[in-house]
Amino acid sequence: MKSKWVLLFLMIFQLGFQIMHCSVTYDNKAIVINGERRILISGSIHYTRSTPEMWEDLVKKAKDGGLDVIDTYVFWNVHEPSPGNYNFEGRYDLVRFLKTVQKAGMYVHLRIGPYVCAEWNFGGFPVWLKYVPGISFRTDNEPFKRAMKGFTEKIVNLMKSAKMFESQGGPIILSQVENEYGSVGKAYGGDGLNYMKWAANMAVGLGTGVPWVMCKEDDAPDPIINTCNGFYCDEFSPNKPYKPTLWTEAWSGWFTEFGGPVYERPVQDLAFGVARFIQKGGSFVNYYMYHGGTNFGRSSGGPFITTTYDYDAPIDEYGLIRQPKYGHLKELHTVIKQCEPALVSVDPVITTLGSLQQAHVFSPDSRPCAAFLSNYDPNNIAKVTFNNKHYTLSPWSISILPDCNNVAFNTAQVGVESTQLEMLVSDSKMFSWETFTEDLTVSDEGSMFTATGLLEQINVTRDTSDYLWYTTSVDIDSSESFLRGGELPKLLVQSSGHVLHVFINGEHSGSGFGSRKHRKVTYKENINLRAGSNKIALLSVAMGLPNIGGHYEEWETGVLGPVALYGLNQGKRDLSWANWTYQAGLKGEAMNIISSNARSSIKWMQDSLITQKPPPLTWHKAYFNAPDGDEPLALDMKSMGKGEAWVNGQSIGRYWTTFANGDCQGCHYAGTYRPLTCQIGCGQPTQRWYHVPRSWLKSTNNLLVLFEELGGDPSMVSLVKRSMVQ
Ligand code: GAL
Q1: β-sheet bridge partners, residue 284
Q2: 421-436+594-725, what's its fold?
Q3: Confidence band of 675 (pLDDT split at 50, 70, 90)
Q4: Which amino acids are annotated catalytic?
Q5: Which superfamily does CATH assign the domain made up of 39-258+273-311 to?
Q6: Phi first, then psi: what are they for 127, rounded to 5°?
Q7: Which residues line ligand 1 (CB under 6 A)?
Q8: How far apart are CA 588 and CA 121, in angstroms?
């Protein structure tokens, strides 16, 4: 009897708890938070791509820009660097980031994945995952599913214990499992479908109390909501009539790759895309990216994704507001919010105003009416009549009338003033440059071993370094005709990627470079050999692991051959099956050269004593004081070639000043359904400036270390201030 009362009490308590606490559901029109349908504007800000010191300001700017939600992926590889060892510190402090969002009164869309794509190293998967016996990524494979479930659970439990779900009073209103699996799954056939259903069930089974989404997955099973990603999403509908229409990636610009152009997406077109989606009944838009940020360290994927992930986002890489993009979108959000009561209440009534003009009218019984007047003609203004009133519509634009009468906003008419974001010279000087040349004679430092034949790079390095040395020796007979003036022999090296430097007897003999689309490198050049023993040393450089593509975990990196000499008396000599000595990483890396506690055995040379141009593979270091003021900082690396840079022991990323050789065709409105991005910067380095977070600096005596592969000139490297110029 007593236990009955206890049970009743518990039930009442639980009910009260549920009422007191929030809930998130959905219906055909919108995400429903605490019983209210909402039109939600969201923006992607990835916590790993900025510093904790920047988070509050970024989130505040997002809030001021009219955003309700911050969207982030969760990056498995930074959180579980080795199986069972977790890291949620510093830049990886996910809970702190979410609490920052919560404090600003905003919601979170947590895209757990754990496959995330995102131009992030290995698409977010830890490299050790590839070496789990019998594993096959993103398909109906037990070892993979076990690991994926383990990490997803880990994150959900972490969120629950920090009370992060809205069902617990926290900020998370939505979560994502997998990422754009639709087309991949189809290619994997039945296994793909089984895996996708398993992933959906697994996620729902975790009982988060908030809805799950799967983006670009038309088959997403109930109750998971399938969502759209793209430059436009107004042709998208969810797979069931009772699900809302959500746009999880509205691309605000595009990412950059070394050697490629820089992309810009004009805000007029972005605003047009968003308004077009909302007028159709869409109720959630997430800008990918709202702040793109920086791929610090070796976190970028691709390969060949740049260190900057600026994305032409409304908040730039450095955390500054980009105008007019930010302001024009802010105005759009304000007007959409004015229409919210009408938008969530009824479906639009669509009328034709002209051959390429329409009106979408939301006219609920008891709430004010809202209208969207659209002109899809990319070139001509249109004069239309709506509700007996005349309106002039700009080409390729939507006018929003929150009262069905007055135009409060037109997507093509930008009233916000533009600002220029520029790099200004700072007062900070680099002093006492010193140089240390990477030792080319393979030493017993680090891990060195010999094997017959050529090994795949990541199998050897496990991605602990970008660099792998392949070294062999070749005996040349004194009777070779090239030693008496004949034609020099040729060395052929075929590499699966990504960059290759060739050294013959300690001399740099040439290099080969892949690109994001063509990762493979073929080197075929005459080389200087001498009678007797010759050393061939190949330095293979990885430029980030792939983050997209069918079974990308199987893609190979490094010198896989053939390697052969041509033009000897005997003709061709195949070296592919010779004995090769391997060393993962550079000598400087093994000596911890980047740190102020580096081994004292490193013999640095004062640059003032060096008269020659530095050879390839040289370490440089200098000290500098933090510049005055609080503007964000960057290193101007124009005079350098390619390598990696560290400030006070922390990697600011890979650098490469290779020129953008894309087709900068400018931008033009080319009619409907053409993603409108402009390509710029051809003939200039894709990335010249590299973000140095202020919070990484002391006021004096900061240590800058560069590893330069190509022989750049560090004396011209300087610190600049990212500044807004009116
Ligand atoms: C999407 C993907 C994102 C990102 C984007 C391009 O397809 O879901 O993670 O890679 O493309 O920036």
Answers
A1: 40, 246
A2: Jelly Rolls (2.60.120)
A3: low
A4: 180, 249
A5: Glycosidases (3.20.20.80)
A6: -65, -30
A7: 116-119, 179-180, 229, 249, 255
A8: 23
**Parallel, antiparallel or unpaired: strands 678-680 and 24-26:** unpaired
SS3 sequence of 208-257: CCCCEEEECCCCCCCCCEEEEEECCCCCCCCCCCCCCCEEEEEECCCCCE
User: Which residues lie closer than 8 Å to 695 by C-beta, 6 or more apart?
Assistant: 51, 52, 53, 54
Q: According to the model, what pLDDT value does residue 10 have?
A: 47
Q: Does domain 440-585 have CATH number 1.10.10.10?
A: no
Q: Which atom of ligand 1 is nearest to the CA of 73?
A: 9
C-alpha span between 65 and 54 (Å, rounded) = 16
Which of 1-15, 236-250, 564-578, 649-663 has the least mean pLDDT? 1-15
pLDDT score at 1: 43
How much is the pTM?
A: 0.95
Sign of the alpha-carbon dihedral angle for 319, 324, 327, 332 = negative
Residue 119 CA, ligand 1 centroid: distance in Å: 7
Same fold, 421-436+594-725 and 440-585: yes
* Protein residue with its CA nearest to atom 10 in ligand 1: 118
CA–CA separation, 52 vs 690, rounded Å? Answer: 18
CA distance 454 to 579: 9
Percentage above 70 pLDDT, the chain: 95
Q: How far apart are CA 82 and CA 462, in angstroms?
A: 11
